[in-house]
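Okay, any thoughts on this one?
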Amino acid sequence: MLLTADIGNTSITLGIFENEALVEEFRLASDKDLSLEEYEVLLKSLFKDFKVDGCIISSVVEELTKKLKAAVDNVFKVNAIVLSTKINTGIKIKLDNPEEAGADRIANAAGAYVLYNHPVIVVDFGTATTFDIVNEKGEFIGGVISLGIMSQMKALNKFTSKLPRTDVTISNSAIGHNTNDAILSGVIRGTACMIDGLVEQCEKELGKKSLLIATGGYSGLIANYLKRPFDFINPTLTLEGLRYLYEINKSDVISELQEVSH
């Protein structure tokens, strides 16, 4: 079975695949203070009922990349692939500096490339809200990076003296009649307006209408406020992109393991 791991700034999402089917999904905090041994214990506990024979990791947290890879390799006796532009990404990355592309964004673009028609715009709701855009030629040409929903909430509370910490929930009206509702309108409805406006501008630059895909925890909530609905909401797109990337790179891993064994 294949273990896919997406290390984000806030959480680590772990998925276990049997062939093309996602069998189970787990989420851990992105805790830099946990030791290698503690991550090994967590992996043994979570995956005690599964036989893991391969792994691919995408990460935007360098401090955790080596630690989780070492833990995976030690526990499952595999050579986990770490996603970067140094491996076969399955798509052409047409950025000014391809090495700047975040691993999660490469996984999103690869997943969209395989699963959907082109052009496609993937909106990922994480610590940051990002757009990953694949053009009609199947090229990852770039996108948008903005502050995520929870990050906005935390920033308003941290950098102002009187605004309270507000939970993410439904915004009942555009005009907030109290501070809490005003914050919800600004963050929730404001994010939706940003997406509507930027999708329109991105499609103008692409020269044609694109498929609009959402992934990440707040995609269902934001969908309530969009003028133009998402064509698909796929919460596991990043993991599915990782599965595809493992498949096209696993022969290299097998070769490396065979060389080591000899």
